[in-house]
Amino acid sequence: MSLKKNAFVKYYLIYVIFAAIIVFFVALGGVLPRSFLSNSLQMAIAILLSLSLSFVVGFLGELSLGHAGFMCAGAYLGGKVASILAAGALGNGILTFIISVLVGGIVAAVLGVVVGLPALRLKGDYLAIVTLAFCEIVRVLFLNSPKEAFGGAFGLETPKYGSSGISLQMMLILALLLVVSAIAVFRNIIRSKHGRAVTAIRDNEIAARATGVDVTKYKLFAFVVSSFFAGIAGVVYSYTQSRVQSSTFDYNYSIDILVMVVLGGMGSMNGSIISAAIITFLNLKLSTVLTGNLAVAKDLVYALILILIVIFSNAPSLRSFREKYNFRAIIERLRKKEMDPADIKNDAGSWDRIPTKIEMNEVLSTDFKVQESTMNPDKEAK
Amino acid sequence: MNFLVTLINGLSLGGVYALIALGYTMVYGIAKMLNFAHGDIIMVGGYTVLVALGTSGKPIFTVIACVAAIVVCCILGVTIEKVAYKPLRGASPLAVLITAIGVSYFLEGLAQIFFGTNAKFVKIAEMGILHIGGLSIGWDTVITLLVSAAIMAALTLFVKMTKTGRAMVAVSEDKAAASLMGVNVNAIITVTFAIGSILAAVASIFYLMRYPTLNNTMGAMPGIKAFTAAVIGGIGSIPGAMIGGIVLGIIECVFNSTPLAPYTVAIEFAILIVLLLVRPNGILGKKRREKV
After folding, report:
1. Which of A169, A183, B72, B155 could make an SS bond with A29 (beta carbons 3.0 to 4.6 A apart)?
2. pTM (2 decimals)?
C-alpha cells in the first residue's frame, strides 16, 4: 500500500513542483528583478541540456562529449528561422518561437542520426572522441560559414527576447514549459517498452541482443531523441543572445553538461534536473559574489567544489562514511525508524533509479568469445 | 620542393603531438582513465618556461627553463595523481573522468590568477634557418623532429628493456595479475604519470617554439588533438600514439598549406571519424574481446 502511494507521489511530485514554479513566474514575473528571471532562464536551458544528455549517458550508457554540437546546430538553424520569420509576416511572436524550436530540434535530431550511425560500431572512449569530433566539426563549419547565411565569424544575429515581441517573462515561461514537456517525454519513454530496451542495452548489450532487443534501432533512437531536445535548448539559447557565436559551443560546453549529468547521478532524471539547476546557480552566483580581485577565483572555487564532490561521493575508501551520513540515512535516523531489510528492495525496484552499470569485463573472467553470426540471425540466413 | 618542406614541418608537429599523445595513451593503458588535465600540464610547462626565462635571452637560461619545466610538470603530474586520482581508484571510470575535468579547470583557474587571461609572448630561443640543397627549414623544426624521435626511441627501449617498463606493460594488461606477480601497481601508476608529464613538458617547449603565444587555455587544443592522435593510433598502444601523432601532424600541415586552411580542424576530425568507422579500434589498437 505504502509503496503504491510512494510511487504516485514520486511520479507526480516533479510536475507539481514545475507547475508551482511556472505559476510563480506568471504571477510575479513582472515584479521580480530581471537578473533573477534571466538566471532562471539559464537554469531552464541547463536543465533541458542535462536531461537530454542524461538519456544517452545515463540510460543508453554511451559517453557523449559532443552534446554542445547538437545545441549549436539547433541554435544556428532555429535562430536563422526565427530571424527570417520575425522579419516576415509572422512577426516576432510565440508562433515564430514555436516554429523555430521545431526546426532547431529536427535539425539537431537529423544530426543525431549522423552521429548515432558510428555509435553502432564504436564503444566507450572511441565513441566519446567521435562525438567530440562531430561537435568540433559542426562548430568549425558554422564558424567558416558564409557571412550572409550564418554570419560567419561574427556570429548569427537572432531576435533576442525583450527587444520586441517576446518579453523576458514570457520567454522564461515558454522555456519552463519546454522543460516540463521534456521531462514528460523522457519519463514516459523510460517507463515504456522502448526505454526498457535502451536500459537493457546499457546493462548488457549482448544479453539485450540475445533477448531480441533491436540494438541498432534503439541506439539510434536514443541519440535522436536526446539530440532533438539539445537542439531545442539551442533555440532557447539563441533567444537569450543577440548574437549566437559558434565559439560558445566548444567541447568545454559539452563537458559542463556532462558534469551536470554525472553529478546528478547516472540513470536518474531527477538528479540531472537538480544538479543542472544547482551547478548553473552556483556558477552564476560565484560570478556575482566574487567581484573585483576575487573574480578570477571563480573557476578555481568551482573546480575545487567539483573535485571534492566527486571524491567524496565516489571514493571507495569513504564508503562506510557515506553509508552512515548520506541523506537517506540521516532522514531515517531523524524519524527514529529502524530500516526493515524487506523495505530496501522496494526502493531498488523503483523506476527512476536503476542501478548503475557493472563493468562486465572486470567482474567475469570466463574467456568466451561470442560469435557474431550466432548473435545475429539475419547474417546467418545469408 | 615546397611539399617536402610541408612534410618535414608536419613530421615535426606530429612529433609534438606524439609526445603529448604518449602521455594520454600510457595513462589510459595503465590507469584506464582519460586524463583530461594532461593538456593543462602543457600549459603549466609553458608558464614555467616563461617564468624561468625571465627577460634574459641567454642560451643558458633556455636550458634552465627547459629543465625547470620538466621538473615542475613531473612534480605536478605526480601530485595530481596522488591527490585527485588515487582516492578514486576502483571507483567508476566516469567519476575519475569528472575529477580530471575538475583538475583541468583548477589548473586553468590557478594560471588565470597568477598570470591573467591575456596572451603572453614567449621567445624561447633565436634559431636560424637550415639550408639543405634547395630546402630551407627552421632549426626549431629540425630540433623538434630529432629530439622527439630520440625520446620516442628511448621510451620504446625503456618499455621493452627495463624492469619498470615491463612492469608497466604487465599492469596495463592485467592489474590484478601483475600485482600477484609482485608488481607494485601504485608505484607503476605514479611512474607512468611522471613520464607522461615529462613528455608533456618537453612537448610544451616545442609547441611554444612553433606557436609562441601563451594563455591559460593554451593546453586545450594540443591536448584534444593529441587525444585524437592517441585514438587514431589505438588508445593504450605506445607505437600507436606515435603513428597517430605523426599522421595528425602531417594532415594538419598539409591542409594548412592549402586554401582549405580554415577547415583544417574539421578535416582532421572527419578523418578520425572515417578511420574509426573502418578500424573501430584505431590503427594499432588491440581488439577488445567481449566476455560473456
Report:
1. A169
2. 0.82
